[in-house]
Amino acid sequence: MPQQKTLFDKIWDAHVVKSSEGHPDALYIDRHFIHEVTSPQAFDGLRKRGVKVFNPARTTATADHNVPTKDQHLPIKEALSRHQVETLRKNCAEFGVELYDLGHPYQGIVHIIGPELGLTLPGMTIVCGDSHTSTHGAFGNIAFGIGTSEVEQVLATQCVLQYRPKTMKIEVNGTLSKGVLAKDIILYIISKLSASGATGYFVEYAGDAIRNLSMEARMTICNMSIEMGARGGLIAPDETTFNYIKGRKFAPQGETFDRLVEQWRQLKSDDNAAYDLVLTFDAADIAPMITYGTNPGMGIKVTDRIPTVNELKDLSEQTSFSKSLEYMGLEPGSAILGKAVDYVFIGSCTNARIEDLRLVANMVQGKKKADNVEVWVVPGSKQVENQAREEGLDKIFEAAGFQLRQPGCSACLGMNEDKIPAGKYCISTSNRNFEGRQGPKSRTFLASPLSAAAAAITGKVTDVRSLV
Amino acid sequence: MSKEKFITLKSTAVPLSIENIDTDQIIPARFLKATTREGFGENLFRDWRYNSDDTPKDFILNNGTYTGKILVAGKNFGCGSSREHAAWSIYDYGFRVVISSFFADIFKNNALNNALLPVQVSDEFLKKIFAAIEKNPATPITVDLSQQKVVLEDGSSESFDINAYKKTCLTNGYDDIDYLLSLRDEIRHFELVH
């Protein structure tokens, strides 16, 4: 019997340019995405070394982290943000890199545009100077975030130097309950593993509960792999994957596509492949989830009480736990259900695809937001925004009192002006609830798009199952 | 491009006994707008150091008792965003070593790529370091990269792991791109046959 390999190992091995004792592997990168925040210093490095971009066709750029979500046709008001986007423009022109700039029909959050343009394909290696690059793994590829020095490596040589991580398989079997989304699955898994539980690993998600998810939902799962410390997460490609890719702008077409699909069908872990760790969860145990603390591992079922210090698994975390609850203004042992919220943010590379917007629109149709909340819907890309308008979702949002903005990372990290004010609570479909993440002293509850929509209607943390 | 070489460092240390310190705390997103690598130290731990009106808070970096080139922090240091600005800001502030009992992957790589040495010690030894600094803020800690050892003033020590390749880079001031550029012919060949 030939050596049994995981899907991760198969893709990794196929991309090693050089492996030598004592050295990390030189790994060839098929697709490189860049954006305005983590690339300028890398281009500067190329200039200092007098090096060109090795293979410009394999890099795609967009402006997303730092862009306004209103009046994108006007020059960016804030001088530093404007300078950063202009620097990206200049660098892409000088080094011959394709840029989907503000106003371009393909502009959007880097991890949303890659898949929707058919640039993200099975079997690839994909990197970007952004930790949520793990999103692309939903298509059965190795995708991970890198630092700026590594962005420079890829620009200069189309390779990165990496140590092979350990592999972990997470199986989710069974049927999801009504009102439970992919976001709840991943928040549940992270709450079980903690914010560091998968550090050093690359995760493969499997099991029928994962298999039955749409591509959008699979991307939500892989997206948050980094929130438990994993460098990335992947899901073996199947008919759902191939149907999603078929006909997309830059995806292979016609006979080439058909031939590739035959190859992609082989992209799966061997039956007896060995993982360093295997974890199994039952989909029936998963309920709508919400975070109460300041890291994504601090999540509970929306109907559960916030733990007390004594209930912590690791007593060394007491200080951090208390600091976290103090920051959030929440009492240990109290209920989170019914807690009033001030803002609702529906957006980010985790949950700003068309399917997310449809789910939200479907729930709020004919309803109005509560008076005490402000609701921002920030589509993940220009294409998502246009599609939402074509389907009339904009009318539903408008009637509900939601603001439909223009695409960008927005209040997920508050680099642009979309910040949650100090002390205010925001229920957010994004991926991080760190202190100040959505603006200085802002307080974040991470949840699914349905839970966020429900809170928008009631003005408080709500069990979405009471509304669907 | 050559970087500062790292061999041995003997310094006092700044203790930050908080766990899961994410890179948004190390350098908040709104300070990532610069297009160069310098100057980020000014905003290191910005929201823990300063109030919104820029007056200093009661925070360890504002407490003159603790100084030095070594930052000692709780486990899972550097989790979250991949921003290399986190490593740049720690280095720019003047630190050359971060000691913790656990590092997030991307931060560890970023630090190593910027001549900032991440030193992972056991939970017990980390506790010992915190206790030693609490007892005497002027206590020197020695980080010996060639011996891969952290030594405290009382002579107790613990060894730490570092990959041989990264160790060579740090002690000689090399970086990964120098190495990868030397492989360009092999990379071209790989592109042709794959």
H/I helix tally of chain A: 15
Spatial strand order of the main sheet of chain B? 1-6-7-8
Question: Roughly what percent helix of chain B?
Answer: 25-40%
Helix content of chain A: 25-40%
Q: Classify the oligomer.
A: heterodimer
Structural class of chain B: alpha/beta
Say how many strands of chain A there are: 19
Radius of gyration of chain B: 18 Å
Per-chain topology:
The complex is a heterodimer of chains A (468) and B (194).
Chain A: H1 7-13, E1 16-18, E2 25-28, E3 31-34, H2 40-49, E4 59-62, H3 79-95, E5 98-100, H4 110-116, E6 125-128, E7 142-145, H5 148-157, E8 159-162, E9 166-173, H6 182-193, E10 201-206, H7 208-211, H8 215-223, E11 232-234, H9 239-245, H10 254-264, E12 277-282, E13 289-291, E14 299-301, H11 318-328, E15 343-346, H12 354-364, E16 374-377, H13 382-390, H14 393-400, E17 403-404, E18 425-428, E19 443-446, H15 449-458
Parallel strand pairs in A: 3-4, 3-6, 4-5, 6-7, 9-10, 9-12, 10-11, 15-16, 15-18, 16-17, 18-19
Antiparallel strand pairs in A: 1-2, 2-8, 13-14
Helix pairs in contact in A: 2-5, 6-8, 12-14, 12-15
Chain B: E1 8-11, E2 13-16, H1 23-26, H2 46-49, E3 70-73, H3 85-93, E4 97-100, H4 105-112, E5 117-120, H5 123-135, E6 141-144, E7 149-151, E8 157-159, H6 164-172, H7 176-181, H8 184-193
Parallel strand pairs in B: 2-3, 3-4, 4-5
Antiparallel strand pairs in B: 1-6, 6-7, 7-8
